[in-house]
Amino acid sequence: MTAEIDKMDNVYEIDHKISSDDSEIDFDLSKNMDEEDTGEIDIRLDQVMQEGPRDYDPVDDDHSLVTRPPSDVTVRVGRRHLQRMRDHQLLDAHDFQERRIVHPDMDDYRIHNAFREIRTKLLQESGGKNLVIMVVSLQHGMGTTFTSVNLAAAFSYEGEKTSLIVDCDKTKRKIEEYFPVDVDFGLTDYLDDRSIGTEKIIYQTGIARMRFVPVGRRRETIGEFFSSERMRDFILQVKKRYSDRYVILNAPPLEVSADAAILSEISDRIIVVLPYGKVSNARLAKALKLIPQEKIAGLVLNDKLQYV
């Protein structure tokens, strides 16, 4: 994908033709940036033209921010375009039930309401800004993935919000079981190979306004990736790309891997998932010492074992 990139008054203007299939456009700005460009840089889409069916509104005032250049940057194609991102196949009621995903029309509305309440609490704490939210438990099988997926879904059901769930648990890779797509690359592939852009690892979920990033190929040294500058840049990009996007990190268990503690450092809020009546106070207190106390938004008690 090519684009004309010009710099004027510390603003990079991108002149690019987009097709009706484009939802996110990646640009490598490393050849255009000056050595002194080390802080935040304005990225502006300029004179964007459309090809194909007019499914989207034209772009006239979109901006995106990146830091620590030179690096790849993804520019979204307009706020209104985001709300019209097309999914090839949306899930139906049967799919939601089969994949254990809550939805507004489900029979047991209490479960859907529970995730709405968690979403509302996080929105109240956010102060109008989007968040990176880590979901974690003490051990596998306590409901972390179920909570991560359904919290992301709850944000997407709120009409003006979008969500991106990022699988960071290399030992289970359960996120992929929820969504009907074939996966080629994932997070660890992106972190390991700079030729892979973000557009290669973000997949549709079958739920409007919701996307996911699989964990990628298994690597024993994944902790080093999570603490890398490229990981921090990735989180910064996907958070700043859309001001109404909430990023959910599906973390490995606190008692199993040090990765959870590493991921907590790049998260804004943390939700801890516990099986109801199965974890002692002493065990919980010991586990919580591994993560920043001020970032803990709350505990989620999971008593619906059929959903784990």
Choose one word for the global shape: globular
Query: What proportion strand?
Result: 15-25%
Number of strands: 15
CATH class of the largest domain: Alpha Beta
Low confidence ranges: 1-12, 15-24, 35-85
Q: CATH superfamily name of the largest domain? A: P-loop containing nucleotide triphosphate hydrolases
Helix and strand composition category: alpha/beta
Q: Give the helices and strands as they follow along the chain.
A: EEEEEEEEHHHEHEHEEHHEHEHE
Please report the number of helical segments: 9
Structural domain count: 2
Alpha-carbon Rg, integer: 20 Å
Compile the SSE list and pairings.
Layout: E1 4-8, E2 11-15, E3 17-18, E4 24-28, E5 41-45, E6 49-50, E7 63-66, E8 72-76, H1 79-82, H2 93-98, H3 109-126, E9 132-137, H4 144-157, E10 162-167, H5 187-192, E11 203-204, E12 210-213, H6 222-226, H7 229-241, E13 245-250, H8 259-265, E14 269-275, H9 281-288, E15 296-302
Parallel strand pairs: 2-5, 3-6, 9-13, 9-14, 10-12, 10-13, 14-15
Antiparallel strand pairs: 1-2, 4-8, 5-7, 11-12
